[in-house]
Amino acid sequence: xxxxxxxxxxxxxxxxxxxxxxxxxxxxxxxxxxxxxxxxxxxxxxxxxxxxxxxxxxxxxxxxxxxxxxxxxxxxxxxxxxxxxxxxxxxxxxxxxxxxxxxxxxxxxxxxxxxxxxxxxxxxxxxxxxxxxxxxxxxxxxxxxxxxxxxxxxxxxxxxxxxxxxxxxxxxxxxxxxxxxxxxxxxxxxxxxxxxxxxxxxxxxxxxxxxxxxxxxxxxxxxxxxxxxxxxxxxxxxxxxxxxxxxxxxxxxxxxxxxxxxxxxxxxxxxxxxxxxxxxxxxxxxxxxxxxxxxxxxxxxxxxxxxxxxxxxxxxxxxxxxxxxxxxxxxxxxxxxxxxxxxxxxxxxxxxxxxxxxxxxxxxxxxxxxxxxxxxxxxxxxxxxxxxxxxxxxxxxxxxxxxxxxxxxxxxxxxxxxxxxxxxxxxxxxxxxxxxxxxxxxxxxxxxxxxxxxxxxxxxxxxxxxxxxxxxxxxxxxxxxxxxxxxxxxxxxxxxxxxxxxxxxxxxxxxxxxxxxxxxxxxxxxxxxxxxxxxxxxxxxxxxxxxxxxxxxxxxxxxxxxxxxxxxxxxxxxxxxxxxxxxxxxxxxxxxxxxxxxxxxxxxxx
Length: 606
Hints:
This protein is mainly α. The chain is built from 21 helices and 19 strands. It has helices spanning about 5-20, 55-70, 75-85, 120-130, 150-160, 170-180, 200-210, 240-250, 250-260, 270-300, 325-345, 350-370, 375-390, 395-405, 430-455, 485-495, 505-515, 525-540, 550-555, 560-565, 585-590; strands spanning about 50, 90, 95, 100, 105-110, 190, 220, 225, 270, 305-310, 310-315, 455, 460-465, 465, 470-480, 495-500, 505, 570-575, 600-605. A hairpin with a 2-residue loop joins strand 13 (about 460-465) and strand 14. The radius of gyration is 34 Å and the shape is globular. The model is unreliable at about 460-465 (pLDDT under 50).
């Protein structure tokens, strides 16, 4: 066996020793094994049947099946690949316990992990075969167990030709049609501990039994469910049954918390604080929608007048859509697209994030920005409809109440369809404008905080002659050109970026910057890193930083909102491209302005 690896040579050495009579098979436990009765266990050499997993041709089919399957995460796929690599002969029978008898040897039963690997195929016809769990009540086709001989099953599941004159030929056609309608398996959900055996058997047996068109499409593996970050245990009292949770928090809050507990292969975590918060979230949202619905009903009576009910302010239905309206509309579409994709991938935490938490966050921003002018009723109706539909899979009882009792629909939410008025993809331009507004407000707040931290005197924040306790104003400087050094950095990065691999040649980037003497500028490397991050996230288009909207025009449209949210007496938008002479303080403040990132000057008005 010269030249072979130990893994290859080991079984062949064993076979040679046995064949020459130089050795015999012997097995013992790796350590002391005690039975539940307190007896020491030994190994008995018994007759056994094996599945020859790992056989080259069969393994190749299993690998092909896995490659085409969705595993909802690379960790699950990696564990399947490891199992396919190490799994070989598997002892598949036992002599006692529950189970099906081995068809070719009635002395043995199929052991539990090897059994039931294709039972889901039986689900496709079970409702037609019997009405009771034990099979005593026949199904609508009147087929008895005796009618389902090997030829019948070969026809129903494998499509083999049915022998002429079969007593239940017409009924079996119905079974075959039902099987083909439901198969293949779209998703198999099970515990991660079964990947190394039962779920790998599931793949192997399907490839052996069925044509490629009927192989499993996906497997989702999950961990255990923890409670409040700790393992559930009766001994410690850290337990919560499904009934207890429903009694304590209600079905919908329980479902929402389970959705929020996690979707990965790792252990999920049911947090009771999340369940309590879920009750408040759902109640608060219900109250808000109820108030919004009253405002919409008032507007229906007087569509050409503005309406205000509590905190809900609406402008006339005939009013045109503003930039902020369009941004909110684009955000709703983007989040609905995301939550729909998350639901399709059974990623319920992500669906909850995009379809609930972020959806509410976007609405709250819209309400805040339009507080002075009022929301557009068309968008409010769209928000309510989308919000209820997006939450329905997780909180169906809440959604049904809102849909019928609050909104007034006559049909059930269960008859509602997923929104069909969605664009094919997100409107990145409008989303970028929305992020620009948020970022600008954050930057203005940061500028004031920075000013406040620089100097504190007598309880009043004073810096550069600004008393932040007195009425103040803000100048916002808008630039249309980037500094030359930034353009040079982007040029170096663009020249050394491989679009095919999505990677930069860092050595060449440094060489290019060094050749221009730019490495001494402390701003260069942080700026370069930021651009690299953007390119990794969005691709080569991140090199083009040109703003595709009119900054001064947008900011002037938002003046009332900016004054209110920043608590300023005045906000002035200064377009550096058309502005005349600037004072010394203004010139210094304007130096850091670049397209998409205004700079600020805060000063007192008194």
